Amino acid sequence: MQVNLKDKSLLSGFSVFLSLTLIIGSIGIFQINSLTKIIRTISQRQLPMERLILEMKIRNAFYAMGVRNYVFWKISKYLQSASVAADIDMIEKSFLKLKYYLNKYSELADTQAQRKLIAMLRVSMQELNSMGRQLVESADMNEQDSDTINKLLINFENKFYQIEEILSGNLSRDNFKSIEEQLRLAQREKDISILILSVSLFLSTGLGIGISYMVYMSLRKERYKRAMLVYKMISVEEKERKNLSRQIHDQLSQDLSALKIYVDLISKDISDTDIKQKEKIKKSKEILVGLIDKGHNISELLRPPELDELGLVESIAALVSEHQQITGCNCNYYWSVSEINCSYECSLTFYRVVQEALTNSAKYSQAEHLNVNLSQKGKFVSLMISDDGIGFDYHKYCRKPLRRQEDKVKLGLRGIHERVNLLEGDFSIKTAPGKGTVIKVYLPETTILKS
User: Do the Cβ atoms of 167 and 56 come closer than 8 Å?
Assistant: First the structure.
């Protein structure tokens, strides 16, 4: 029940974490879209409107300047105004441009206040144009009537400044207010988004830490269970090996020794002239001696006393030396420290790896040279065994079904691999037909049970 609840809690935590991630992403997308909309509004409406206001101010000034210069030229023959006043079409073009920009501005206007100002501008512009025409006509007809022209000029100037005031004051001010409103809206949305993102980030960080802790504790518990399983498996295996070794040593060896004594007694009762019987007795004694030796060897293989008495380094040295004596293979053994500091499970695994590798080398490899390297670096112990034998296709052996006698090598290597994996180590084998064999094993110096 606890496992189910823990799994549900972990699943719920991941769901909330995923939801927060989606919320953060959605807020980011919303913020980007909102800012994009505001920028688009400013760039496509407010800024063009401000540019149109500037153009209207320029055209209004050009129109007023053209009318003034024309009137001054007619009244006083002011030479510097002649170049402008001589082109009466420029006055009309300036007014037409003024109307054109006002129409463009009205297309972008979207508030009632702006539309009201546009209507006022249209009326004022018509009045300004009417005054301008009247001034031009008066200047053409009554060149010497300066009082009438001066009055018209004063009214014209007043209307010009009235339009200028609308353009520079109300219209620009209203446009700047719209820009400021858009910027305030962007700032407010940014502040809200930052607040939401900060809270979401804080919650997701806390939730992520909680989930990581739960995963860590779950993995730690699983590693502990796995280590306990390894410990029990090795303990049971070694216990069975020890019992079997004791039975072979104490019972089978004693029985064989007793049988050898009886054979000796029988040999004494046989006449020296009975050569055939003597030969049979002698052959039987040789077989018994061989069986006793094999029993001792099997007993030592099942439960190596050297590992407890001499330690890992010397135990492997004894295996290598024995292998060299039996096979005649040139063996080299290297170690980095006088004694390896690791748990009993690791020491026993290394011993079994060397034992299995040397056995396979003697049976199958036909190697002339063999190297064993044992070293300790930091918290890890490494073992490398290499020979120049005939090698084999390891992957092909792994794919073959286990049904033949020669597949015992596969069972041994698989057992090594599984034991190393259970101890959270790393096992690798590099071999190919005609290229020898290299076996590498890495194990932590201590198991999780002790750490």
Answer: yes
pLDDT in tens, 179-232: 778 778 877 877 777 777 777 777 777 777 877 787 788 878 887 787 777 677
What are 98-144's pLDDT values in tens digits?
Answer: 889 889 888 888 778 888 888 888 898 898 888 888 888 877 775 55
Question: d(Cα 327, Cα 369) in Å, to the nearest integer?
Answer: 11
Cβ atoms of 204 and 24 within 8 Å: the answer is: yes
Say if residues 414 and 353 touch (Cβ distance below 8 Å). Answer: no
What is the average pLDDT across 247-256? 67
Architecture of domain 2-216 in this structure:
Up-down Bundle (1.20)
- Residues shown for the chain: 451
Q: Enumerate residues 6+ apart whose C-beta is below 8 A from 55.
A: 97, 101
User: Hey, what CATH topology would domain 306-451 get?
Assistant: Heat Shock Protein 90 (3.30.565)
Q: Is 413 helix (H, G, I), strand (E, B) or coil?
A: helix
- The strand pairing partners of 431, in sequence order, are 437
Position with higher pLDDT, 398 vs 451: 398
Apex 376 CA angle, 375 and 381, nearest 5 = 95
The domain segmentation of the chain, as residue ranges, is 2-216, 306-451
- Whether residue 365 contacts residue 431, with contact meaning beta carbons closer than 8 Å, is answered with no
How far is 134 from 132, CA to CA, in rounded Å?
5
Q: Residues 6 or more apart from 249 whose CB is under 8 A from it?
A: 295, 296, 299
Domains 2-216 and 306-451 share a fold: no
Nearest Cα neighbor of 355 from 412, 292, 398, 411 is 412
Cα separation, 355 vs 336, whole angstroms:
20
Residue 410's pLDDT band, with cuts at 50, 70 and 90, is: very low
Q: From edge to edge, which strands make up the β-sheet containing 330-335?
A: 330-335, 369-377, 380-387, 437-444, 426-431
In whole angstroms, what is the distance from residue 372 CA to residue 356 CA?
Answer: 13
The radius of gyration of the chain from alpha carbons, rounded to an integer in Å, stands at: 52
In whole angstroms, give the CA distance from residue 120 to residue 109: 14
Q: Which two tokens stand for residue 89?
A: 């079409």
User: Residue 396's closest CA among 386, 388, 387, 406?
Assistant: 406
Residue 392 in tokens: 């084999």
**What is the pTM (predicted TM-score) of this model?**
0.46
